[in-house]
Design brief:
By secondary structure, the protein is mainly alpha-helical. About 50% of the residues lie in helices and about 10% in strands. α1 crosses α3.
């Protein structure tokens, strides 16, 4: 049975998974500053910032949660400092 190699599989715009992770980490740094200034960022704003790339969007949320931010839920779709 063949399996997908995450290093070579192309995601949106031909990016590899590793490239998507790097983009999400860089986006994470920018968002932290914005959250600290504004107090919160909506999920819809994040989706626009990542140009509707679902993988980068999900990785960015994952990394923000890892770094101690409250990423909300379907009732409160916003990211805040905990």
């Amino acid at each position: 049975m063949d399996s997908c190699d995450i290093r070579t599989r192309a995601y949106k715009n031909g990016k590899t998974f590793s490239q998507c992770e790097e983009i999400a980490e860089s986006m994470n740094t920018k968002l932290k500053k914005e959250i600290d200034e504004k107090g919160k960022v909506l999920w819809s704003e994040l989706l626009e910032k990542v140009e509707h790339d679902e993988l980068v969007y999900k990785l960015t949320l994952k990394y923000l949660r890892r770094d101690g931010y409250n990423i909300g839920d379907w009732k409160t779709p916003e990211i805040k400092k905990t």
